[in-house]
Amino acid sequence: AQRVTQPEKLLSVFKGAPVELKCNYSYSGSPELFWYVQYSRQRLQLLLRHISRESIKGFTADLNKGETSFHLKKPFAQEEDSAMYYCALRLGGGSYIPTFGRGTSLIVHP
Amino acid sequence: GAGVSQSPRYKVAKRGQDVALRCDPISGHVSLFWYQQALGQGPEFLTYFQNEAQLDKSGLPSDRFFAERPEGSVSTLKIQRTQQEDSAVYLCASSPTGNGYEQYFGPGTRLTVT
Q: What is the dihedral of CA B96, B99, B103, B109, to 10 degrees?
């Protein structure tokens, strides 16, 4: 079965520092990868997906099939980036059931 | 417009009681998902509807869990004879597409079984 691993439960950085939230997956096929974010007292929302190859709020993520990773990066963290981040995987070929990682809490200190 | 809403937001149930959790999706959204999120974990898939049809219920943990969406809009997740291990946040998400590619989440219902 597919699995998503977010090795860090908590990541703490200072404002302006680069940030990388790690996500590794186990699946031999071609998955669809997503990052979701949950700000304090707000609902879970989609941040970005690998298929769009987009940058949202300065965040980017590249799918590395060789390393089976989809790390989320931002060159200069802002305090408003503090949130819970979840990596999620869907099997390709029209599968609709996502598998989520356990999440990483990002805290950006002033 | 209004997003996905869920009620109640908080529910405390005594072990053995039945509970019903409601989800109002965004109007016109075809797909509806239910997830269970235990403390410190990510959401785990429970079941999926496309309109009124329940296409997948493979994530329901036991036959005490039952979900319905009779008119293809509002959905109810029912848990019978609640157990302590059912304590979690139950999330509902809806999507405008049949494959649920872009999901919009509700605020969740926090269920505590005592």
A: 100
Domain coordinates of chain A in residue numbers? 3-109
Q: Encode chain A (110 residues) as per-residue pLDDT tens digits.
A: 789 999 999 999 999 999 999 999 998 778 889 999 999 999 999 999 887 778 889 999 988 888 999 999 999 999 999 999 999 999 877 678 899 999 999 999 99
CATH assignment, B5-97: 2.60.40.10
Q: Name the residue among A44, A96, A100 with its Cβ closest to that of B100.
A: A96
Per the CB < 8 A criterion, the answer to whether A70 and A50 are in contact is yes
CATH number for A3-109: choose from 3.20.20.70, 1.10.760.10, 2.60.40.10, 1.10.1040.50.
Answer: 2.60.40.10
Q: How far apart are the first and last CA of chain B?
A: 37
Q: Which chain A residues have a beta carbon less than 8 Å from that of B5?
A: none
Of A4, A88, A96, nearest to B99 by CB-CB distance is A96
Element (H, E) at B87: none
Where along chain B do its domains lie? Answer: 5-97
